[in-house]
Each structure stands twice: as C-alpha cells, then as structure tokens.
C-alpha cells in the first residue's frame, strides 16, 4: 500500500513541461520513499509478530522481528527474480535485429548511430553484411578485428578495409567516447541503486528488531489477563 501511495504521489507531482527536473526529483523521491516504506512496514510487521506470539519476552520479540525481515527480504528477492526471469525470457523471444539495435549489438547512442550509418553505407548490397560486429570491435579498440570483419563482408583486402575505416576515425573516436560515458553512467546508477537497497535493508532490519522488541514489551496492552471465577458443578 505504501508503494502504491508513493507511485501516486510521484506521478501526481510529475511536470511534463519540466521533465528533466521532474525526473531528477522523482528519482530522489523514489529512493527516500523506498527506505521509508521498508522501515515503516517492517517495524509494524515486527511489532505485530511479537503481539501474535503473546509472550512478554523482549528477546523473543526482537527475534520475531528479525524473522519477519528475513521472510520479507526472501519474498522480495524471489519476486524480483521471477520478474526479471520473465522479462528476459520475453526479451529473448523477440526476433534479433540485423544491426546495433538487435540483440547483442552495441548500445545505440547518437555517435554510434552515425558510425553505424557510415559503415552500413559501405556494406550496402552485401548479402551477409552486418555492421554490428564491426562496430562492437571498433568500440572495444580491436581495429584489426574490425578491418578483418569488414574485409570479409565487402570481399576486399584487409588493407583496403582498414583504409576505409581510417576515414571514419572522427566518428569512431566520438562513438568510443560516448560508449564509455554511457558505461560510466550506467555503473554510477547501478552502484547508487545497490547502496539504496543496502541502506533500506539495513535500516529495515533494525526497525523490525526494534518493532518486535517494543511489541513484546506491550503485550499487556493487547492481551488483557482476566480471571474468571470457576463454575461450580452441581
């Protein structure tokens, strides 16, 4: 419920006329809301687990909270694994494309798109021409491999292919620079996501343990000990 509320607040505050700042604020808000959601939900989960146990034992209550945290983390991991597995199976079921936009090709950035257009122009009319392996080799700095692949596709010598690629040096350098920047950006966001997940898990662990500890100490507020007079048998 908290996740749905966060999504509702995020989309309600999105401004299409200022998409860049809205997207940045949406990302920061998502991280904060994710941490708050985990902490609040697992604090209450640990507290209710201790209440349901019905024993006024602080240590047992804290362990119940940790158990709730472990079960929640396991369920979340299984849910993510199933979702990613379904997405990957659907992704591999698509038909592969012939160029960088197909599966296994380099990431399509503006500079890579320009390089792809130039190489594809030289491969026009070739039955087995495919610019994707050539671009991948160029982005990896394997110029000899790229020349050999282009020579095989065009039916020319390796020297002629290398000379053709030499004319595209500015486009190749721009594509390499953009690819490195894209890789660094992806690594930065992945690292940030993992740190947010770690912080959420650690704080929610503490919250679940504290919630269980507090819940066990408040058993008398939930279960009222009442004594009933014994009925006499006639």
How does this structure look, described?
With 234 residues, the protein is mainly alpha-helical. Helix content is 76%, strand content 0%. It has helices at 2-12, 19-53, 58-92, 110-122, 131-139, 143-154, 158-166, 169-217, 219-222. Helix 4 (110-122) crosses helix 5 and helix 6 (143-154) crosses helix 7. The longest helix is centred in the last third of the chain and has 49 residues, at 169-217. Residues 91-104 have low confidence and may be disordered.
Report a brief summary of the structure.
With 234 residues, this protein is mainly alpha-helical.
Layout of strands and helices, then pairs:
Elements lengths: L1 H11 L6 H35 L4 H35 L17 H13 L8 H9 L3 H12 L3 H9 L2 H49 L1 H4 L12
Helix pairs in contact: 1-2, 2-3, 2-8, 3-8, 4-5, 4-8, 5-6, 6-7
Largest sheet: none
| Global Rg | 30 Å
Unreliable spans: 91-104
Helical residues, percent = over 70%
Tell me the distance between the termini: 56 Å
**What is the arithmetic mean of pLDDT?**
77
- Overall 3D form: elongated
Number of helices: 9
User: Strand-and-helix sequence, N→C?
Assistant: HHHHHHHHH
- What fraction strand? under 5%
**DSSP, total strands:** 0
The helix-and-strand class reads: mainly alpha
Summary keywords:
elongated; mainly alpha
């Amino acid at each position: 419920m908290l996740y749905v509320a966060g999504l509702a607040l995020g989309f309600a505050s999105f401004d299409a006329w200022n998409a860049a700042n809205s997207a940045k604020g949406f990302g920061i808000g998502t991280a904060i809301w994710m941490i708050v959601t985990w902490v609040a939900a697992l604090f209450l989960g640990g507290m209710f687990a201790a209440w349901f146990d019905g024993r006024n034992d602080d240590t047992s209550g804290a362990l119940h909270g940790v158990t709730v945290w472990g079960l929640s983390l396991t369920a979340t991991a299984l849910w993510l694994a199933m979702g990613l597995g379904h997405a990957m199976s659907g992704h591999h079921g698509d038909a592969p494309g012939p160029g960088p936009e197909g599966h296994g090709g380099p990431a399509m950035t503006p500079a890579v798109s320009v390089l792809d257009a130039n190489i594809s122009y030289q491969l026009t009319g070739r039955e087995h021409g495919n610019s994707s392996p050539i671009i991948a080799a160029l982005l990896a700095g394997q110029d000899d491999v790229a020349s050999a692949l282009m020579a095989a596709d065009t039916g020319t010598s390796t020297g002629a292919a290398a000379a053709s690629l030499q004319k595209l040096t500015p486009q190749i350098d721009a594509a390499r620079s953009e690819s490195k920047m894209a890789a660094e950006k992806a690594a930065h966001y992945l690292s940030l996501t993992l740190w947010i997940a770690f912080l959420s898990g650690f704080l929610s662990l503490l919250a679940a343990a504290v919630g269980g500890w507090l819940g066990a100490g408040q058993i008398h507020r939930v279960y009222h000990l009442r004594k009933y007079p014994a009925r006499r048998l006639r």
